[in-house]
Amino acid sequence: VKEDIVSYAKYKWPLLFSRFYEAYKFSGPSLPKNDVIIAVNWTGVYVVDDQEQVLLELSFPEITAVSSSRTGKMHGQSFTLATVKGDEYTFTSPNAEDIRDLVVTFLEGLKKRSKYVIALQDYLSPEGSSFLTFKKGDLIVLDPVNSGETVMKSGWCYGENANTKKKGDFPAECVYVLPTITKPPTEILNLFVQSGSVTDHFNQDESKPNESVSVLYTLEQYSYDHFRTPPKRTLSGTLNRRGKQNEELWKHSKVPLKQPLLKKLIGKEQQTADACNCFLNILAALLKYKEISHINTLYMGDHPDRKSRVANEFTDKIFTPPINQEILRDEIYCQIMKQLTDNRNSVSEERGWELMWLITGCFPPSTNLLKELTAFLRSRMHIGIAADSYTRLQKCLRNGVRKYPPHQVEVEAIQHKTTQILHKVYFPDDTDEGFEVESSTRAKDFCQNIANKLGLKSAEGFSLFVKISDKVISVPEGDFFFDFVRHLTDWIRKARPAKDGIPPTFTYQVFFMKKLWIKTVPGKDYQADIIFHYHQELPKYLRGYHKCTKEEAAQLGALIYRVLHGDDKSNLAKLQDMLPRLIPTDLVKAQSTDDWKRAIISAYNKDAGMSSNDAKVSFLKIIHQWPTFGSAFFDVKQTTEPSYPENLLIAINKNGVNLIHPQTKELLATHAFSKISNWSSGNTYFHMTIGSLVRGSKLLCETSMGYKMDDLLTSYISLMLNTLNRRGRT
């Protein structure tokens, strides 16, 4: 009953459910200039005098725009309401911005939920198509699965003409979403027919002022020499009918291409097909041909597409052909510039700029087209994304061509209006930090940025690692970061078949760690020691990979305790429970718990006052003396060398490939990198040849870590060769 009472009151006396604001002055048609009260509620905006008489009532469907500005006078702010009749009402109020924001909130919310749109112009559907025909002022009711939000975000929508009762797809640019959730009364609809300026008013944000259009650079002149079938002019200098049609090749179009734009592609069958397919995935197509009506994979949204898509599904189809075939790159740039010229659909134009942003991070055009593209972007610097695209183009010219189309992260970023991509990077000490990554960022640059931000003395030997699925793989320093992640994702996806027709999805993490321990001396780079070296060496030590005496283990155990607890001795009584975190697994039972406890406490007391970070450095200085310091360890099985045990521990470090007995930790052999002539790996093995390829000895290991061993060996040898080359040049 309470709910019914409130509902009745809400609709009977809507003013009682309003938010009220004082307005000190106002101006507008048929209104006196007196102080008034502005009331805003879910039905619209009311202007009330001090006697609570309603002077003006504007329902939200009648309001076409609201804006606020500073007047510079007392109270300093004003707001203006524009109506479908073309009237404007301006009010001065200290709450002008609040009123503006509230009205905008209602307008936007109602439009998103609305099921009603009104035609701003006549539209005749192409012959033979199922599109909806309507006249200016016709009310169109959206189908149940669509809403005003669908219309505003998509180039096309589906609905029923309330006058003709016909249903079909219609272009969103031809209608206006009415901010209402109930069917608007006839008198409101008539306002849209009666107002001569209504179409211009609603399209003012999408159209370009005449003075702006004249300075926007286009491909018109370029098209005369480089596009297929140049325009033919009559003796009087005017274009004939055929010329006019060709001249429009450089302008936005909704007609699919049957031939490429550039005449240099004419006659090349495969490239022609690729160029036309790319255009189908780019442009807003007002399809005139029934045979193409099944095409859904269009990016710019001018043709209905009711399937949900992965963010980079369209961009893959647009950018893969030109990345693989250089001859197509100018064509795709021309297609995107064409679609950004005289494009009256704001949604389509916005998506076109997204494509421009993406392509300028993938590859540059030829020198011939570069000046055209540069002029095109420079003439549109008032558009933020154009300026950003120009910057990306300069970086692309410096850094080179990508090997893969944009990664999903890049596509989603620009679709969410974000041109700055912050990527989380994890460190061995269980901390993480966000770093900006660009399309042109190579792994080496990324590493240097991280090293600089963390205050490391050098980035040499450090690497990025990508963890995806059950793999952790190092990123080659010369690779574009997003190219490598894309390559890795595609590689793993191919290895994992789709389930029930749904391709597997993968998330990944990026780690930054020390990979090559060539010149690592504890104490020389304090930040590297406490963030990386200690936390990377500790797990290897506790797993028992090093040959270590009990005395060294007690001393190291005391330092590990100090790293964990500092000068707090309260946990020393629990040492028996902490031993697995302090002593290598193969030494825990080498003596009794009490003996370990006494030895560790004794060593701990000798270092009284040492900080946790200093304890990390002291730990590293001890294990630095061992030949296996800075090694990557691999447990493998081998059967090629009878003098070695079947289970073998291999340590790869700056000295080469070390073969170690897994139980005694005795060093069986060290093969210097200069002696290794060949190596290879697979999913289950690692193979290495020592000495000459003909007479050398071979080592075949059974391991799932072959890819890591292969990469480490390649990286160490490459680093050493680069070092030798630098010395030779000096």
From TrEMBL:
InterPro entries: Band_41_domain, FERM/acyl-CoA-bd_prot_sf, FERM_2, FERM_central, FERM_domain, IRS_PTB, MyoVII_FERM_C1, MyoVII_FERM_C2. Residues 112-180 form the SH3 domain. One of its GO terms (cellular component) is cytoplasm. It comes from Candidula unifasciata. Residues 252-415 form the MyTH4 domain. The keyword Signal does not apply. This is Myosin VIIAa. Belongs to the TRAFAC class myosin-kinesin ATPase superfamily. Myosin family. The keyword Ribonucleoprotein does not apply. Pfam families: FERM_C1_MyoVII, FERM_M, IRS, MyTH4, RA_2, SH3_2. GO terms for molecular function: actin binding; ATP binding. The lineage of its organism: Eukaryota, Metazoa, Spiralia, Lophotrochozoa, Mollusca. Keywords: Actin-binding, ATP-binding, Cytoplasm, Motor protein, Nucleotide-binding, Repeat, SH3 domain. Residues 1-114, 421-724 form the FERM domain. It is found in: Cytoplasm.
